[in-house]
Backbone:
Protein backbone atom coordinates (compact mmCIF):
# COMPACT_ATOMS: atom_id res chain seq x y z
CA UNK A 1 0.00 0.00 0.00
CA UNK A 2 1.27 3.52 -0.77
CA UNK A 3 1.63 4.54 2.88
CA UNK A 4 4.02 1.65 3.47
CA UNK A 5 5.97 2.58 0.31
CA UNK A 6 6.40 6.06 1.77
CA UNK A 7 7.84 4.61 4.98
CA UNK A 8 10.17 2.25 3.09
CA UNK A 9 11.39 5.15 0.94
CA UNK A 10 12.01 7.23 4.08
CA UNK A 11 14.28 4.41 5.24
CA UNK A 12 16.09 4.67 1.88
CA UNK A 13 14.88 1.38 0.41
CA UNK A 14 14.13 1.22 -3.28
CA UNK A 15 10.63 -0.09 -3.96
CA UNK A 16 9.30 -1.72 -7.13
CA UNK A 17 5.56 -2.42 -7.34
CA UNK A 18 3.98 -4.80 -9.82
CA UNK A 19 1.57 -2.88 -12.07
CA UNK A 20 -2.00 -3.22 -10.81
CA UNK A 21 -0.98 -4.73 -7.46
CA UNK A 22 -3.13 -2.27 -5.51
CA UNK A 23 -5.99 -1.77 -7.96
CA UNK A 24 -8.67 -3.67 -6.08
CA UNK A 25 -7.50 -2.22 -2.76
CA UNK A 26 -8.12 1.32 -3.96
CA UNK A 27 -4.44 2.04 -4.71
CA UNK A 28 -3.79 2.63 -8.43
CA UNK A 29 -0.23 2.57 -9.80
CA UNK A 30 -0.04 6.37 -9.67
CA UNK A 31 -0.55 6.35 -5.89
CA UNK A 32 2.57 4.21 -5.47
CA UNK A 33 4.57 6.39 -7.87
CA UNK A 34 3.54 9.46 -5.84
CA UNK A 35 5.16 7.86 -2.80
CA UNK A 36 8.40 7.16 -4.66
CA UNK A 37 7.95 3.61 -5.95
CA UNK A 38 8.82 2.44 -9.45
CA UNK A 39 6.26 0.35 -11.33
CA UNK A 40 7.94 -2.64 -12.94
CA UNK A 41 9.07 -6.24 -12.49
CA UNK A 42 9.55 -6.77 -8.74
CA UNK A 43 11.23 -10.16 -9.07
CA UNK A 44 14.72 -8.65 -9.35
CA UNK A 45 14.46 -7.18 -5.84
CA UNK A 46 16.36 -8.53 -2.84
CA UNK A 47 13.15 -8.88 -0.85
CA UNK A 48 9.97 -9.90 -2.66
CA UNK A 49 6.76 -9.53 -0.64
CA UNK A 50 3.48 -10.93 -1.90
CA UNK A 51 0.21 -12.32 -0.61
CA UNK A 52 -0.25 -15.89 -1.88
CA UNK A 53 2.33 -18.65 -2.58
CA UNK A 54 4.32 -18.04 -5.79
CA UNK A 55 3.18 -19.60 -9.06
CA UNK A 56 5.56 -21.90 -10.97
CA UNK A 57 6.48 -18.99 -13.27
CA UNK A 58 7.27 -16.84 -10.24
CA UNK A 59 9.39 -19.57 -8.63
CA UNK A 60 11.43 -19.67 -11.84
CA UNK A 61 12.37 -16.01 -11.24
CA UNK A 62 13.81 -16.62 -7.73
CA UNK A 63 17.57 -16.61 -7.22
CA UNK A 64 19.81 -17.61 -4.33
CA UNK A 65 19.90 -13.96 -3.22
CA UNK A 66 16.10 -13.49 -3.07
CA UNK A 67 14.26 -13.32 0.24
CA UNK A 68 10.61 -14.22 -0.42
CA UNK A 69 7.95 -13.23 2.11
CA UNK A 70 4.27 -14.17 1.96
CA UNK A 71 1.50 -16.55 2.99
CA UNK A 72 3.28 -19.67 1.69
CA UNK A 73 0.94 -22.29 3.20
CA UNK A 74 3.95 -24.20 4.60
CA UNK A 75 1.97 -27.07 6.14
CA UNK A 76 -0.29 -27.59 3.14
CA UNK A 77 2.14 -27.06 0.28
CA UNK A 78 5.30 -29.18 0.75
CA UNK A 79 5.99 -29.45 -3.02
CA UNK A 80 5.80 -25.67 -3.38
CA UNK A 81 8.37 -25.22 -0.62
CA UNK A 82 10.67 -27.82 -2.23
CA UNK A 83 10.47 -25.91 -5.52
CA UNK A 84 11.46 -22.68 -3.74
CA UNK A 85 14.31 -24.49 -1.95
CA UNK A 86 15.66 -25.74 -5.28
CA UNK A 87 16.28 -22.10 -6.34
CA UNK A 88 18.47 -21.41 -3.28
CA UNK A 89 16.21 -18.53 -2.21
CA UNK A 90 15.30 -17.80 1.42
CA UNK A 91 11.57 -17.88 2.20
CA UNK A 92 9.63 -16.62 5.22
CA UNK A 93 6.03 -17.71 5.72
CA UNK A 94 3.75 -15.17 7.38
CA UNK A 95 1.78 -18.10 8.89
CA UNK A 96 4.86 -19.03 10.93
CA UNK A 97 5.50 -15.65 12.57
CA UNK A 98 5.65 -16.64 16.27
CA UNK A 99 2.53 -15.59 18.27
CA UNK A 100 4.63 -13.69 20.82
CA UNK A 101 4.19 -10.11 22.05
CA UNK A 102 7.27 -8.78 20.23
CA UNK A 103 5.98 -10.09 16.90
CA UNK A 104 2.41 -8.81 17.18
CA UNK A 105 2.98 -6.03 14.64
CA UNK A 106 3.99 -8.70 12.09
CA UNK A 107 1.17 -11.12 12.88
CA UNK A 108 -0.64 -11.30 9.54
CA UNK A 109 -2.71 -14.33 10.56
CA UNK A 110 -4.25 -12.13 13.24
CA UNK A 111 -4.74 -9.06 11.04
CA UNK A 112 -6.50 -11.07 8.34
CA UNK A 113 -8.50 -13.12 10.86
CA UNK A 114 -9.79 -9.84 12.29
CA UNK A 115 -11.12 -8.90 8.86
CA UNK A 116 -12.69 -12.35 8.33
CA UNK A 117 -14.41 -12.47 11.71
CA UNK A 118 -15.92 -9.02 11.27
CA UNK A 119 -16.98 -9.65 7.69
CA UNK A 120 -18.54 -13.05 8.43
CA UNK A 121 -21.02 -11.50 10.85
CA UNK A 122 -21.96 -8.75 8.39
CA UNK A 123 -22.52 -11.26 5.58
CA UNK A 124 -24.70 -13.34 7.88
CA UNK A 125 -26.66 -10.21 8.83
CA UNK A 126 -27.51 -9.44 5.21
CA UNK A 127 -28.42 -13.07 4.44
CA UNK A 128 -30.61 -13.43 7.55
CA UNK A 129 -34.29 -12.58 7.00
CA UNK A 130 -34.40 -11.34 10.61
CA UNK A 131 -33.06 -8.44 12.71
CA UNK A 132 -30.01 -8.88 14.94
CA UNK A 133 -31.13 -6.55 17.75
CA UNK A 134 -34.33 -6.67 19.72
CA UNK A 135 -36.83 -4.16 18.35
CA UNK A 136 -39.82 -2.74 20.17
CA UNK A 137 -41.97 -1.22 17.46
CA UNK A 138 -45.53 0.00 17.16
CA UNK A 139 -46.18 -3.19 15.22
CA UNK A 140 -44.91 -5.36 18.03
CA UNK A 141 -41.69 -6.60 19.59
CA UNK A 142 -39.06 -8.49 17.63
CA UNK A 143 -36.79 -10.80 19.65
CA UNK A 144 -33.00 -10.47 19.17
CA UNK A 145 -31.15 -12.96 16.95
CA UNK A 146 -29.22 -15.78 18.62
CA UNK A 147 -25.67 -15.99 17.26
CA UNK A 148 -23.38 -18.92 18.03
CA UNK A 149 -19.63 -18.60 17.38
CA UNK A 150 -17.62 -21.83 17.37
CA UNK A 151 -13.88 -21.36 17.83
CA UNK A 152 -12.90 -18.19 19.67
CA UNK A 153 -9.40 -17.38 18.42
CA UNK A 154 -8.74 -14.06 16.71
CA UNK A 155 -11.48 -14.42 14.05
CA UNK A 156 -14.02 -15.83 16.51
CA UNK A 157 -13.51 -13.11 19.10
CA UNK A 158 -13.90 -10.45 16.40
CA UNK A 159 -17.10 -12.17 15.21
CA UNK A 160 -18.43 -12.17 18.78
CA UNK A 161 -17.60 -8.47 19.25
CA UNK A 162 -19.21 -7.53 15.92
CA UNK A 163 -22.39 -9.51 16.56
CA UNK A 164 -22.66 -7.95 20.03
CA UNK A 165 -22.29 -4.45 18.58
CA UNK A 166 -25.20 -5.21 16.26
CA UNK A 167 -27.33 -6.24 19.22
CA UNK A 168 -27.49 -10.03 18.88
CA UNK A 169 -27.49 -12.40 21.83
CA UNK A 170 -24.18 -14.20 21.41
CA UNK A 171 -22.83 -17.52 22.66
CA UNK A 172 -19.20 -18.52 22.12
CA UNK A 173 -17.49 -21.88 22.39
CA UNK A 174 -13.89 -23.07 22.23
CA UNK A 175 -11.97 -26.06 23.52
CA UNK A 176 -9.26 -23.87 25.07
CA UNK A 177 -10.53 -22.93 28.54
CA UNK A 178 -8.42 -19.76 28.50
CA UNK A 179 -10.88 -18.07 26.14
CA UNK A 180 -13.86 -18.35 28.49
CA UNK A 181 -12.98 -15.04 30.14
CA UNK A 182 -12.30 -13.36 26.78
CA UNK A 183 -15.72 -14.43 25.46
CA UNK A 184 -17.45 -13.20 28.59
CA UNK A 185 -15.58 -9.88 28.54
CA UNK A 186 -17.19 -9.20 25.15
CA UNK A 187 -20.65 -9.62 26.64
CA UNK A 188 -21.26 -13.11 25.26
CA UNK A 189 -22.10 -16.36 27.02
CA UNK A 190 -19.49 -19.13 27.15
CA UNK A 191 -20.90 -22.53 26.26
CA UNK A 192 -19.60 -25.19 28.65
CA UNK A 193 -19.38 -28.80 27.49
CA UNK A 194 -19.40 -30.97 30.57
CA UNK A 195 -16.64 -33.58 30.65
CA UNK A 196 -14.50 -31.85 28.02
CA UNK A 197 -11.14 -30.75 29.48
CA UNK A 198 -8.80 -28.01 28.27
CA UNK A 199 -7.41 -28.86 24.81
CA UNK A 200 -4.73 -26.19 24.55
CA UNK A 201 -1.50 -27.39 22.90
CA UNK A 202 1.87 -25.75 22.18
CA UNK A 203 1.92 -22.06 21.21
CA UNK A 204 -1.64 -21.48 22.43
CA UNK A 205 -3.15 -23.47 19.55
CA UNK A 206 -5.75 -26.19 20.00
CA UNK A 207 -4.91 -29.89 19.70
CA UNK A 208 -7.07 -32.22 17.65
CA UNK A 209 -9.79 -33.83 19.76
CA UNK A 210 -10.17 -37.60 19.96
CA UNK A 211 -13.20 -39.15 18.21
CA UNK A 212 -14.94 -39.56 21.61
CA UNK A 213 -14.31 -35.94 22.59
CA UNK A 214 -15.63 -34.76 19.24
CA UNK A 215 -18.83 -36.76 19.70
CA UNK A 216 -19.27 -35.36 23.23
CA UNK A 217 -18.88 -31.84 21.84
CA UNK A 218 -21.32 -32.38 18.95
CA UNK A 219 -23.97 -33.89 21.23
CA UNK A 220 -23.69 -31.06 23.76
CA UNK A 221 -23.83 -28.33 21.13
CA UNK A 222 -26.65 -29.68 18.97
CA UNK A 223 -29.48 -28.16 21.07
CA UNK A 224 -27.76 -24.75 21.07
CA UNK A 225 -27.24 -25.04 17.30
CA UNK A 226 -30.94 -25.72 16.80
CA UNK A 227 -31.80 -22.49 18.66
CA UNK A 228 -29.35 -20.35 16.66
CA UNK A 229 -30.32 -17.93 13.91
CA UNK A 230 -26.69 -17.53 12.86
CA UNK A 231 -23.68 -19.79 13.41
CA UNK A 232 -20.20 -18.54 12.57
CA UNK A 233 -17.51 -21.22 12.74
CA UNK A 234 -13.77 -20.56 12.86
CA UNK A 235 -12.31 -23.70 14.46
CA UNK A 236 -8.91 -24.74 13.14
CA UNK A 237 -6.09 -27.01 14.24
CA UNK A 238 -2.76 -26.15 12.55
CA UNK A 239 -1.85 -28.59 9.79
CA UNK A 240 -4.98 -30.72 10.24
CA UNK A 241 -8.35 -30.80 8.45
CA UNK A 242 -10.90 -28.55 10.17
CA UNK A 243 -12.81 -30.34 12.96
CA UNK A 244 -16.38 -31.23 11.99
CA UNK A 245 -18.42 -29.46 14.66
CA UNK A 246 -21.81 -29.23 12.92
CA UNK A 247 -23.22 -32.55 11.71
CA UNK A 248 -25.99 -32.65 9.11
CA UNK A 249 -28.37 -33.72 11.89
CA UNK A 250 -27.78 -30.42 13.73
CA UNK A 251 -28.44 -28.38 10.57
CA UNK A 252 -31.73 -30.26 10.25
CA UNK A 253 -32.76 -28.87 13.68
CA UNK A 254 -32.24 -25.24 12.60
CA UNK A 255 -35.13 -22.97 11.59
CA UNK A 256 -35.62 -22.11 7.89
CA UNK A 257 -33.86 -18.84 7.06
CA UNK A 258 -31.02 -19.44 9.53
CA UNK A 259 -27.48 -18.90 8.30
CA UNK A 260 -24.15 -20.69 8.79
CA UNK A 261 -20.93 -18.92 7.77
CA UNK A 262 -18.10 -21.45 7.81
CA UNK A 263 -14.76 -19.64 8.00
CA UNK A 264 -12.93 -22.97 8.10
CA UNK A 265 -14.10 -23.80 4.55
CA UNK A 266 -10.57 -23.64 3.16
CA UNK A 267 -9.53 -26.42 5.56
CA UNK A 268 -12.59 -28.51 4.62
CA UNK A 269 -15.16 -26.74 6.80
CA UNK A 270 -16.49 -27.06 10.35
CA UNK A 271 -19.93 -28.03 9.05
CA UNK A 272 -20.41 -31.43 7.45
CA UNK A 273 -22.55 -29.82 4.70
CA UNK A 274 -20.26 -26.90 3.80
CA UNK A 275 -19.29 -26.65 0.13
CA UNK A 276 -16.04 -24.64 0.11
CA UNK A 277 -16.37 -21.51 -2.04
CA UNK A 278 -20.16 -21.90 -2.43
CA UNK A 279 -23.37 -20.60 -0.90
CA UNK A 280 -26.40 -22.83 -0.98
CA UNK A 281 -29.65 -23.51 0.84
CA UNK A 282 -30.40 -26.87 2.42
CA UNK A 283 -33.73 -28.68 1.97
CA UNK A 284 -34.90 -27.32 5.34
CA UNK A 285 -34.08 -23.73 4.28
CA UNK A 286 -30.76 -23.14 6.07
CA UNK A 287 -28.26 -21.08 4.09
CA UNK A 288 -24.66 -22.35 4.32
CA UNK A 289 -21.79 -20.15 3.16
CA UNK A 290 -18.21 -21.41 2.78
CA UNK A 291 -16.27 -18.28 1.79
CA UNK A 292 -12.64 -18.88 0.86
CA UNK A 293 -11.13 -15.42 0.94
CA UNK A 294 -13.08 -12.89 2.98
CA UNK A 295 -10.15 -10.46 3.41
CA UNK A 296 -10.20 -9.82 -0.35
CA UNK A 297 -13.81 -8.64 -0.03
CA UNK A 298 -12.56 -5.86 2.25
CA UNK A 299 -9.40 -5.31 0.27
CA UNK A 300 -8.45 -1.84 1.41
CA UNK A 301 -8.13 -2.44 5.13
CA UNK A 302 -7.04 -6.05 4.70
CA UNK A 303 -4.20 -4.79 2.47
CA UNK A 304 -3.28 -1.88 4.74
CA UNK A 305 -2.92 -4.18 7.72
CA UNK A 306 -1.01 -6.82 5.75
CA UNK A 307 1.32 -4.21 4.27
CA UNK A 308 2.09 -2.92 7.76
CA UNK A 309 2.77 -6.47 8.94
CA UNK A 310 5.28 -6.85 6.10
CA UNK A 311 6.82 -3.45 6.83
CA UNK A 312 7.41 -4.42 10.47
CA UNK A 313 9.16 -7.60 9.34
CA UNK A 314 11.39 -5.67 6.92
CA UNK A 315 12.18 -3.14 9.65
CA UNK A 316 13.23 -6.01 11.91
CA UNK A 317 15.79 -7.06 9.28
CA UNK A 318 16.44 -10.66 8.26
CA UNK A 319 18.96 -11.70 10.92
CA UNK A 320 18.63 -15.51 10.97
CA UNK A 321 19.44 -15.64 14.68
CA UNK A 322 16.43 -13.47 15.56
CA UNK A 323 13.67 -15.59 17.14
CA UNK A 324 10.95 -14.12 14.92
CA UNK A 325 12.95 -14.44 11.69
CA UNK A 326 14.04 -17.97 12.59
CA UNK A 327 10.46 -18.94 13.45
CA UNK A 328 9.08 -17.66 10.15
CA UNK A 329 11.86 -19.01 7.92
CA UNK A 330 10.66 -22.09 6.06
CA UNK A 331 13.35 -22.32 3.34
CA UNK A 332 17.05 -21.49 3.70
CA UNK A 333 20.27 -22.57 1.93
CA UNK A 334 18.48 -24.84 -0.51
CA UNK A 335 16.54 -26.76 2.12
CA UNK A 336 13.09 -26.73 3.69
CA UNK A 337 13.76 -25.98 7.36
N1 LIG B 1 0.85 -12.27 19.56
C1 LIG B 1 0.12 -13.02 20.34
O1 LIG B 1 0.39 -13.18 21.51
C2 LIG B 1 -1.03 -13.74 19.72
C3 LIG B 1 -1.65 -13.19 18.62
C4 LIG B 1 -2.70 -13.88 18.03
C5 LIG B 1 -3.12 -15.10 18.55
N2 LIG B 1 -2.52 -15.60 19.63
C6 LIG B 1 -2.91 -16.91 20.15
O2 LIG B 1 -2.71 -17.89 19.16
C7 LIG B 1 -3.62 -18.95 19.36
C8 LIG B 1 -4.31 -19.32 18.07
O3 LIG B 1 -5.22 -18.31 17.66
P1 LIG B 1 -5.87 -18.36 16.20
O4 LIG B 1 -6.93 -17.36 16.14
O5 LIG B 1 -4.78 -18.30 15.18
O6 LIG B 1 -6.48 -19.82 16.19
P2 LIG B 1 -6.81 -20.78 14.97
O7 LIG B 1 -7.19 -19.96 13.77
O8 LIG B 1 -5.72 -21.78 14.82
O9 LIG B 1 -8.11 -21.57 15.50
C9 LIG B 1 -9.29 -20.84 15.78
C10 LIG B 1 -9.87 -21.32 17.11
O10 LIG B 1 -10.46 -22.61 16.93
C11 LIG B 1 -10.36 -23.28 18.16
N3 LIG B 1 -10.65 -24.72 17.99
C12 LIG B 1 -9.89 -25.71 17.45
N4 LIG B 1 -10.54 -26.89 17.47
C13 LIG B 1 -11.77 -26.65 18.02
C14 LIG B 1 -12.91 -27.46 18.31
N5 LIG B 1 -12.91 -28.77 18.06
N6 LIG B 1 -13.98 -26.85 18.87
C15 LIG B 1 -13.99 -25.52 19.14
N7 LIG B 1 -12.95 -24.71 18.90
C16 LIG B 1 -11.84 -25.26 18.35
C17 LIG B 1 -8.95 -22.96 18.61
O11 LIG B 1 -8.78 -23.17 20.00
C18 LIG B 1 -8.85 -21.48 18.24
O12 LIG B 1 -9.24 -20.63 19.31
C19 LIG B 1 -4.54 -18.47 20.46
O13 LIG B 1 -4.10 -18.98 21.68
C20 LIG B 1 -4.39 -16.98 20.43
O14 LIG B 1 -4.72 -16.36 21.66
C21 LIG B 1 -1.47 -14.95 20.23
Residues:
Amino acid sequence: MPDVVRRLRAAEHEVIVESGAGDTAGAPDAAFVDMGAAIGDPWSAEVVAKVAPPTAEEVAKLTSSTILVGFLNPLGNPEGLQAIAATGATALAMEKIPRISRAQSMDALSSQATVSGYRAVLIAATELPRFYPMFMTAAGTVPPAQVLVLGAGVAGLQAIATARRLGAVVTGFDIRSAVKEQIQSLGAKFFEVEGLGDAEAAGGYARELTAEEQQLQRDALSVQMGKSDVIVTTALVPGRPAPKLIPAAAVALMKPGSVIVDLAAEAGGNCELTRPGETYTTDNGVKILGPLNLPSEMAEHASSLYARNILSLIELGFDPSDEVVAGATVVRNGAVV
In short: The chain is about 35% helix and 15% strand. Residues 99-101, 104, 107, 109-110, 113, 150-156, 173-176, 204-206, 209, 234-238, 243, 245 surround nicotinamide-adenine-dinucleotide (CB under 6 Å). The chain has two domains: 2-106+298-336, 128-292. The first strand starts at residue 16 and ends at 17.
